[in-house]
Specification:
This protein has 2 domains: about 1-80, no CATH class; about 85-365, Alpha-Beta Barrel (TIM Barrel). It is built from 12 helices and 13 strands. The chain has helices at about 1-5, 45-50, 135, 145-160, 180-190, 210-215, 230-235, 245-260, 275-290, 315-330, 340-345, 350-365; strands spanning about 10, 30-35, 40-45, 55, 65-70, 70-80, 100-105, 105-110, 165-170, 195-200, 220, 265-270, 290-295. Strand 9, helix 5 and strand 10 form a beta-alpha-beta unit. Helix 4 packs across helix 5. The chain is globular and about 55 Å long.
Length: about 375
């Protein structure tokens, strides 16, 4: 899985299963693929994927497809079908898929605010980000109201068995950095359906927002570092670098006190220049604080300033994920214990596999 997520996948039938995603926030330029009962997100629209040694044959009558490496069959795979709720629309005629989408196998995800003060400035934008692409292409709407989100969430649970939800947002020009609109959204969703929710935003200016978010029905919180080396942060994400890692660490500590150990996480993009040692070093600090470091391979998205940046090699990813999985296992932090969100889903990284392998090795050594 690590190699597949690093180098991507070529598709004989691009229309197999649920539609792949282009642009927007989250796992963009990916397609959901199920291997051995585990659904992962695999790059299919990147330049790396176009030259990948992995090819998925067209599905047969049962929906199964042969995953090939050159001429060698590797595995039998399938593609999750399009969710039924995607066929619906609001009374105003807005397709449900423009309000929230299915990620992985059973996660509903949305970007509540599809605009961002960082993205709108060439000097401040995160160079890997494509949050505005899906909006420009007419595949989403700029602001999802609490009522719309509640309506779609209820339908996704009833029709497709969605088990948890991710609410992320572009950063608005307010000191709370999106916490307020996430609170409004979560409160409405929880009033409509019992669905665990992860909210994602930059650290707000006031730690009291964490209590408000918890009270609104948010179960877990993601505050994403993405890049950990200060000089790289300033070059790759100049606007977001204005919130230094030290503020993130303060916010992490305060958030863990509210949400609990392993219920606060951070996304780290491996392959943008941070060394494996730098990522593992900060991951140790995060784990000590009770924060789950969700490390994923960087995916160069078409149309962004980093579209030609190489994806990380499988060996580089393994050099991070294997020891990180052992660290998480030793700390008793399991992705399966996370109530909602990216770490629980795990589709964008093979970290959970290494975490489980480390746990099995420990159990075997003590038995």
């Amino acid at each position: 899985m690590t190699e597949l997520q690093s180098v991507g996948l070529r598709l004989e039938d691009p229309n197999a299963g649920a539609a792949s995603r282009r642009g927007g926030a989250g796992p963009s330029d990916h397609k959901a693929v199920t291997i051995d009962g585990v659904t992962i997100m695999v790059p299919v629209h990147t330049s790396t994927a176009w030259h990948s040694p992995f090819v998925a044959h067209s599905p047969d009558g049962t929906g199964r497809s042969a995953l090939m490496r050159g001429t060698i069959p590797i595995a039998s795979i399938s593609f999750p079908k399009a969710p039924r709720f995607h066929a619906l629309q609001t009374l105003e005629g807005i397709p449900y898929s423009h309000i929230a989408t299915l990620h992985g196998a059973d996660v509903l995800a949305t970007t509540v605010l599809q605009t961002c003060i960082r993205y709108e400035s060439r000097k401040k934008t995160c160079k890997f980000c494509s949050i505005g692409q899906s909006l420009a292409a007419g595949r989403t709407i700029a602001r999802k109201t609490p009522e719309q989100l509640a309506e779609v969430a209820r339908a996704a649970v009833l029709l497709d068995g969605v088990r948890h939800m991710v609410l992320t947002t572009g950063t608005p020009p307010t000191p709370d950095r999106g916490a307020a609109i996430l609170c409004e959204s979560a409160f409405a969703i929880k009033a409509a359906v019992d669905l665990p929710i992860q909210a994602q935003c930059e650290p707000p200016d006031d730690d009291r927002w964490f209590e408000r978010m918890k009270a609104a029905g948010i179960d877990t919180l993601g505050m994403h570092l993405e890049v950990v080396t200060p000089a790289l942060r300033e070059r790759i994400m100049p606007g977001k670098a204005g919130v230094p890692p030290s503020r993130y660490m303060e916010a992490f500590k305060a958030a863990v006190a509210v949400f609990g150990r392993a219920q606060v996480s951070t996304y780290i993009l491996a392959g943008l220049g941070d060394t494996a040692e730098a990522i593992l070093s900060i991951s140790r600090e995060l784990i000590e604080l009770g924060v789950y470091p969700f490390v994923v391979p960087f995916v160069p998205i078409s149309g962004t300033p980093l579209e030609d940046h190489p994806a990380p090699s499988p060996a580089f990813m393994q050099s991070i994920l294997q020891p990180l999985g052992a660290m998480l296992s030793a700390a008793g932090m399991r992705s399966s214990d996370i109530k909602a969100g990216c770490g629980k889903c795990g589709a964008c990284s093979s970290l959970a596999t290494y975490e489980r392998e480390a746990a099995l090795a420990t159990d075997g050594a003590t038995s």
